[in-house]
Specification:
Structural class: alpha+beta
Shape: elongated
Bound molecules: uracil
Helix content: 10-25%
Order of helices and strands: EHHEEEHEEEEEHEHEEHEEEH
Distance between the termini: 23 Å
CATH class of the largest domain: Alpha Beta
CATH superfamily of the largest domain: Pseudouridine synthase I, catalytic domain, N-terminal subdomain
Oligomer: single chain
CATH architecture of the largest domain: 2-Layer Sandwich
Strand content: 25-35%
Length: 246
């Protein structure tokens, strides 16, 4: 996994951001369509420092430059969209501007949510960051609001906290997870692993069924109330720092 570049030739940057092939973006520069710090760019070969402030300094065809590499964002994932091409249905990537779908390096989801799970989903083009967040070694806590089909029997929190709960078809017990009961059929559950359909399978293991699942937070980063389903926001340094353990 290579680190993100700190400098790039201007034509390479624009090509990587999906504005067109290298030749096409060189033509855009010759046509005077690219500005930097208020001046029309003349030299498509110039090297640029890749910094988050570039969209405020550079325009392409009158519009601010797309976010440069090093892009991490939070999405309030709506129900019914999938994180993986292996599942049927529209993809989360369709919620972003079309050019973002051809960016290099590509945007990837940081872990996954099921098609029928909503809430906080992070995406990044920074492979190292992705790795650090999903690495089991880092134990990043993920909190879910769970709605159940049947009232709980009372032993769920202890079973989840035990460190001995086995999911069907697996041979390694789950790490301890915490559960807070909100009502007989609602709870918040915090897990530090990311096994396949983990929360749904945890409740299946205690003879219940999840009928609603919403991720509220990852690390100390909580989905803001004002981020509507299907909306997203680019993360700044403070929000990025809130994801990983200090
Ligand atoms: N656990 C699940 O069962 N599904 C998700 O989408 C996330 C956690």
């Amino acid at each position: 996994m290579s680190a993100l570049p700190t400098t790039l030739r201007l034509d390479r940057l624009l090509a990587n951001l999906g504005y067109g092939a290298r030749k096409a973006v060189q033509q855009m520069v010759r046509d005077g369509l690219v500005t930097l710090d208020g001046n029309v760019v003349e030299d498509a070969d110039q090297r640029l420092a890749i910094t988050p402030d570039l969209p405020g300094r550079m325009t392409v065809d009158g519009e601010p430059l797309d976010p440069p590499p090093g892009l991490t964002l939070m999405l309030n994932k709506p129900l019914g969209v999938t994180c993986s091409r292996k599942e049927a249905g529209p993809l989360v990537f369709g919620l972003f501007p079309p050019r973002w779908q051809v960016r290099e390096p590509a945007l990837s989801t940081i872990g996954r949510l099921d098609k029928e799970t909503s809430g906080l989903l992070l995406l990044t083009d920074d492979g190292m960051l992705l790795h650090r967040i999903i690495s089991p070694k880092n134990h990043v806590p993920k909190r879910y609001h769970v709605t159940l089909k049947w009232p709980m029997h009372g032993g769920e929190a202890a079973a989840f906290a035990s460190g001995t709960l086995m999911l069907e078809g697996e041979d390694k017990p789950l790490l301890p997870a915490t559960m807070e009961t909100l009502s007989p059929t609602t709870a918040t559950v915090t897990i530090t692993e990311g096994r396949y359909h983990q929360v749904r399978r945890m409740f299946a293991a205690v003879r219940n069924r999840v009928v609603g699942l919403h991720r509220e937070s990852i690390g100390r980063l909580t989905l803001p109330d004002d981020l509507a389903p299907g909306s997203y926001r680019i993360l700044g340094p403070a929000e990025l720092a809130a994801i990983l353990p200090p």
